[in-house]
Amino acid sequence: LIELSRKLCDYSKAISIFSRLKRSGIIPDLVAYNSMINVFGKAKLFQEARSLISEMRTAGVLPDTVSYSTLLTMYVENQKFREALSVFSEMRDVKCLLDLTTCNIMIDVYGQLDMAKEADKLFWGMRKIGIEPNVVSYNTLLRVYGDAELFGEAIHLFRLMQRKDIEQNVVTYNTMIMIYGKTLEHEKANNLIQEMHRRGIEPNAITYSTIISIWGKVGKLDRAAMLFQKLRSSGIDIDQILYQT
Fold first, then answer.
1. Using an 8 Å Cβ cutoff, are 76 and 108 in contact?
2. Residues of the chain whose pLDDT is less than 70?
3. Rg over CA atoms, the chain
């Protein structure tokens, strides 16, 4: 019933059922606790969600990777990166197993907190603990490198993805185009768009708005205007991002 109420987004009902369950002397199981961490998070009852970890231990129910990753997701979705860092620290202290989702979340968290070195260390240590990074892992670290202005590391990682035939998608290319924009290497940024077309990766509004912005910064206003007009005449959906650019 708790899980059903959660799926129906009826959080008050889920909380009521959970409270009645405990009052009746029934100890919730791991699934029920994990569902309630999610429920409290969706209801923005962050302290209640966090306190369930301690309550679980007291009740003899050992929090697992899902328990912690649910908490991490809750904090990240609400921009509470310091709190997420605290949860991850506890997770490591109690030697809870990490998984791909947890690592990807924490690479992002480290980036948000300007802790690029820690993001880098976590990423490159994933395989040592038996976790294979996926395209989200790579894309997130690319963004972290770009935000930290570690452009050499970003280019190295992108080339590594290509050499090892690791999946690249529109997010990968948009991130790299943005990085070349920061270094004002507009031709390299434009070459990536051509490469996207050759590889069958469809550029989106972010791709085009980024290259238009780059051309504006380097004084290539004619190219920016031509591309904008071309997009309008070709029937490509030009959203608010492009108009603002």
1. yes
2. 1-10, 235-245
3. 22
